Structures are given as C-alpha cells and as structure tokens.
Amino acid sequence: MKTTRFQQRDLVWGILVLLLAVLPLIPGVIGNSFRAHVLIMVLLYASMAQSWNIVSGYAGQTSFGHSVFFGIGAYGAGMAVVTYGLTPWPGFLVGALLAAVVAVLISWPCFRLSGHYFAIATFAIVEIFNRLFMVWDWVGGALGLDYPILTDGWKNFVWSQTKVGFYYGALALFILIFGIVRWIETHRLGYYLRAVREGQETAESLGVNSTAVKLAAMAFSAFLAALCGGFFVQYNYRVDPPMVMSLEMSMKFVLITILGGLGNFWGPLLGAMILIPLQEYTRAYLTVLGSGVDLIIFGLIIVLMMIKQPGGIMGIVTDFGARRRRAGARPDTGV
Amino acid sequence: MALLEVDNLTMTFGSLVANRDVSFDVEAGTIVGLIGPNGAGKTTVFNCLAGMCKPTAGRIVFDGRDITRLPAWKISRLGIARTFQVVRPLKEMTVLENILVGAYLRQADSAKAMEIALRCLKTCFLEDDRDRPAGDLTIGNKKRLEVARALATGPKLLLLDEAVAGLTSTEVREMVALIRGLRDGGITILMVEHIMEAIMPIADKIVVLDGGIKIAEDRPAAVVENEAVIKAYFGEKFSQRLKAMQQAGAS
Fold first, then answer.
1. From the candidate CATH numbers 2.40.50, 1.10.3470, 1.25.40, 1.10.1060, the one assigned to the domain spanning A2-324
2. What is the ipTM of this complex?
C-alpha cells in the first residue's frame, strides 16, 4: 500500500514536469509577456521555498537567514560575470559552496544549544551581511553589480529576446531542487530530519547524530538557496545588497512554505502559486495604492492560515482527504 | 566477562544524589530486573547507561568497551537501545516510519531498512496500525511502538523502562511473552519495572535500589524474602510485624 502511494506521487510529479516542459509550446500561454514573468517567478520562489523547507520544514529548525545564502549565490554568479568576465557557471558553484560553508559555520554553535538560538542567530546574520556587502568595494558596495551586454544562451545563462530561455532555466532549477528533496524525503536523511524535528532526544536514542543531521540539512538547504540566488541575478542583470540580503526576502522563503504546508513536498509549490501571482499582479495593477500592498495581503492570509489551519494548504487537502475517506469507509463497516 | 558492567556509578544533580556507588553486572542472554520504590534512582541509572546523563563518577563497560559519558547516539550505535518510561512517539510520523528511523541505524538502504522495520512491526503486534500517526495510538500500542523502535536498531542490550506499566492485564501478558521471546532470540534485557507479576517470573536476576543505593542483588525468589527489600517497600514497622508473623507461624 505504501509502495503504491509512492508510485502515485511519482506519477503526479512526472506529469507535472511534463506539463511545465511543454507549456511554452502552447501559443499565447507564455510568449514574451508578463504572464511568462509570473510563471518564472512562481518556479523560482517555489524552488527557494523548497530549499528552505529542508532545514526549516523537515528538520524543524526555523531559519530567517536564507536571504543571506540566496545573496551569496547571487553575488557568486554576479562576480563571475561582472568582475571576472567569466560565464556564470563557476560562480553558481562557488557561490553555492560558500553559502553552504557560511551556513554550517553559523549554525554549528547554535545547533549544540537547544531553544531558539538558531532562529535568533539567523535573524542577525541578515543585517550583518547586508551591511557588510554595502560597504565592501570588492563586491561592488552599495552600487552593486551591473551586467554587461551578453550573448543569449545557456552558456551565459541570459536571454534578452524572449523569456522562454529563462523559463526553462527556472524549470531546470525547479526540477533539480524538488528532485533532490524528493530523494531526501524517501531516504535515510529524510527520516532522520523528521525524527530530529519530532523529538531530538528520541532520535538520538535511536542512533541519530542530531547535530550532524541538522548541519547536513542546513548545508544542503543553503547550497540550493544559493543556486536560486544565482538564477535571480541572471534574470535581473544586476544585484545589490538590498535586492537579495534583506529580511523581506528572508520572509518570502518562510511565508511561502508556511502558506503551502511546512515540511510537505508540495507545500512550497502551492504557496508560491498563490503568493507570487498575488505579489506580481498587485505590484503591476495596484501601484496607485503605494508599494507593499502585496505584503499586507500576504500578512492577512498568513494570519488567517495560522488560526484556521496551521498545516497550510496541504493541511486543508489532507484533512479533506481524511474526511472523505472516513465518509467513504462508513458503509463498509456495515454498522 | 559480563555484557554490561556497572562499576560504582554515582550521579548527582547539585546536592541531590540520585545514585551512589551502584554496581552490578548484566550477563549476556539474561533478563535482569531493576526495581525499587519511587525515586530510588532507577531511571537515572538508565539515563546514564543510555548516554542521556553523564555520570558524576564511576564506570560503565559495555561489551568490553568503556562507554561512560559517550553521547546517546554513539551508545545506540554500539548496541544499547532503550525505551522511555513516558512514551515518546515521533507523533507526526506513522508507526512504520517511527520504526524505520530505528531500522536505518544498521541499514542505509531503504528497501532493506523497510524489511527490518516490517519484521519489528510484526514482532510487536503493530501491523494493524502501521500507517497511523504514532501520536494517535492507544497507550498500550505506544508502549509496543517504543519496544519495536528500539528493537529495529538491532541492539545487543535492550533497556526497558517500565514497558508494562499502564497496560491492561491482557496486554501485560502479551508484553511479558514478547520480552521473553526477545531474550530467547538472543537479546539481553535490563528492565525497570514496578509490576512484580511481570518481572518476577521472567527475570534471571533482580537488582534493588533504594534512595539511590543498591540494597540487594539476587535471584527473584531470594529477593522477595530479603529483609532490606521488604523494609524498603513496606517500611520498618510492617517489616518487623511480618517477621513476627513468620516466627509465630514457624513455631
């Protein structure tokens, strides 16, 4: 029964990837339009939220610092292109590795303590890195890095003529990150992450080295968040500290996942499918009300969600499924 | 050489002495019971053995290796598994997933770990609840889950902390049969227990603690007649009256 459920979920995943892959072939769906931009953002933010989900959802260690790792990834690619005149690819890798190292260094002392130290420490690093990058000339300081004109294509990872290239870039990122999380979820590490979340002492009594498990989760998570940052800088052709290393950006990682469903494979995608169109369309059409309207609506949705269904959208889906199963099972019991 | 040797174990919390100079051995393939009135320091001994407390003094040798003050996860890897007196299910994971976490200790491959988990699920009669969240189980099944999960780690020594307490009499009988079965399967067992009906028939040896000190160590039949034990359980007055009654009966 368990195995068939796994197969079912893999089937859903396969169909989804296939649909997303053929989407640009349908005329009018993407084209060179705002709609393409929204789709790319949904894929990007879903990937970001999923990377956060590893350490904060599955392993239960809430991080408010993911914009730092995202930013390090963005600067990795940005510096490879702008400062060193290379393709962004070595920058993606170096940025992601650096982000993982920074993540481990920050969390190591915190994970050995219990309580909220980790969340607080991650909160602090956002400000630290933001200020540091603002005054650090080597990385461009407050002005940031602006891209030169580059030839379109996978080599430079830029597409100026049409958004289809970026769409497939985002899709590749999405498949990579969701694929990795899918793998983790069904293997030992995934069970260990959840065990640490549900009861650290219990997990240790079963031979789980909880510190090592949390550090591994954090390293994976930061590495993947940095890759998302690399994509973000390519897409925007520029980066400066407030664009990436800010509490607002950190909160996006958090809110999307919480809305969709914490520690759930589909949560980040569902959250992004709701919050990102909301963000992009309010920005485009409600600018008369001033900026930040999307954040007000974000906030309201999250507050309502926390009161009504802390499990997020996936919580609602699961509840609904369970209720239907119970209702369906009643005639069978023959009472 | 015994599988487990506890040598002058002392554990203090500030000025409170939970255990003082406790020494005993557990021979491989036996069931040893650890009993004593409330607050005698039984669970503290367990916590020291399992690495959740660092003993203030003394030595614990397991399988020829000094394990004093090792972290819990290392001790578990060496082959000591424990259950908790106050059950600790990983609530949002299913019963099978709970057991899988234990099974992954010896087997990184998911399919093989699943085989181990399914075997432990069956051994502990949890098959009907395999896909239920562990938090939803009845207390009896939560106790069984504690055992199943510990068992899945493939231990040489199993520490059972009141695995029977709180169960119905049928469940107690099942659990006792289960424990005996595990011993026959080659797992050495050290159990803390309050329910004498559960421990006396199956234990090879009983260690009695009172006020953090070992007051007796003997076969079950001898321990129940031990004066110090009776005094610890029933108090000085009752103990004297009992002795008087016995003398009267003898004459």
1. 1.10.3470
2. 0.88
